[in-house]
Amino acid sequence: MTNLIKYNTIFAETFEITEDILPGYKYQDTPSWDSVGHMSMIAALEETFDIMLDTEDIIDFSSWEKGKEILKKYDVEVA
């Protein structure tokens, strides 16, 4: 399974959305991406990719696209 598939699956399952809306998807686009949903997604990403995100990166993680950029800092290529 590719990193992109893992990444998309985390978003789809955490926020109960379909993958077709992921491009352009951002914080609070749906009620499920609230502060609790955000931390659930972060926990899933950290577990899946075996990383520990810095607090600043957790706060900056504001969209599907931004998340891909942030993960690059942790040597996780999502393409």
From TrEMBL:
SUPFAM superfamilies: ACP-like (SSF47336). InterPro entries: ACP-like_sf. It comes from the Bacteria. This is Acyl carrier protein. It comes from Lelliottia wanjuensis.
